[in-house]
Design a protein that fits this description.
This protein is an all-alpha fold. The protein has four helices and no strands.
Length: 123
Amino acid sequence: MKLAGIAALSAGLGVMLSAFGAHGLEGKISEEMLVIWGTAGDYHLYTSLALLVIGAIGSKHAGLSKPYWTMFAGMVVFSGSLYAMALTGVTKLGMITPLGGALMIGAWIWLGVKFLKKPSQSP
């Protein structure tokens, strides 16, 4: 359940950052950067919810901690680079965003393969 707790805290942070973007950054950064901030927040929240589910069912399905942490790392890199880019205006930060996306995609595929295996095949 620790993983679910971490995911819940991440979701709370995602709500705070999204609200900050909607209310605290309006007029302070460009519209383009607000859209980027919004994308970061969307992926942060969606991924946190997925992590919450993974954390909650982790005790019933062996071997979910590695894909969990891969997805978590992907979220941090993806959303973190977009948050930083929106705040600083340094668009070169966007060059690392796809790495976070690749980690999240890999984690989803990893989870899919794990769930498609017969229970006796799980580690």
